[in-house]
Amino acid sequence: MPAILAPQLRIALLRLSRNDQAKDLATRALRGLAGFARALKLKYQDIEVGLDFDPEPGLADNGDLENDLPDLFEAAGSAAREAGTALVLFLDELQYVHEEQLAALITALHRCAQRRLPVTMVGAGLPQLRGQMGLAKSYAERLFDFPQIGPLPDEAAKTAIVKPLHDQGVGIDDGALTAIVVETHGYPYFIQEWGKQAWDAASSSPITATDVEAASKISIAALDESFFRVRFDRLTPTEKRYMRAMAELGPGPHRSGDIADALGRNVTSLGPTRSQLIAKGMIWSPNHGDTAFTVPLFDAFMRRIMPGADWRS
Fold first, then answer.
1. Which of 15, 41, 82, 312 has the greatest number of CB atoms lying within 10 Å of its CB?
2. Is the peptide bond before 151 cis (omega within 30 degrees of 0)?
3. How far apart are CA 140 and CA 59, in angstroms?
């Protein structure tokens, strides 16, 4: 995370340095960023991150992320406040950030909140992120809002399909529309996939249930080859068997004990596998002792790619 953050923060600070009121503070923050990058020997895509400013000794340069990042954010936030603007961090896939880095990020944002500096974050991640942030810093749940973004409600899903079609002068039958909503479970990416394939399958307006039936076969094949397969290929054989056992039980969520029974194992012995799958973003725990897939339709994919009963051995 720090190596990705540093180049973007540099861009923001260079913009602030062109502001007459904030120039000195922004330059100081850039010097702090230079020391920060040097102390941590940051690399981005195997290239060491370097900055064209001389470090300021003692500013964010001791090589301890949880101490340095708050100092750096405070310096950057001071420049933003002087310029009458704000710094907003947009970070996706936060569930993959290591706990010590997450702790440093939370500490830095907490420092800014205490100093009333205009630095904030908009982050996104899988459902387990709330728990991960709480583990990293116990006060995280008081510092952030955690709005949940789940599947689209039926009416919103229908609008996402109908409006682009209507904008192009194309209609869709009620039965076809309902079929797409049901097949996709309101998952936005799947709605896009089914919408594309239904458009391609239809020879005329309106799109019919027959068109959607053809589109479903193509959509599932396309997801199997890309969306699902990419995730599957990241798994170890043990993790694949765990996911296959979940799939045998259905869409979920499932009790950990039921998964263990399907594998003929005890719950405790499967704890490390479950933890690894959560860390990889494949499953999550909606409630204590429950386990669910992070994306819909993955259970059906697992049954297709690992058919029969050989996975039990």
1. 82
2. no
3. 25
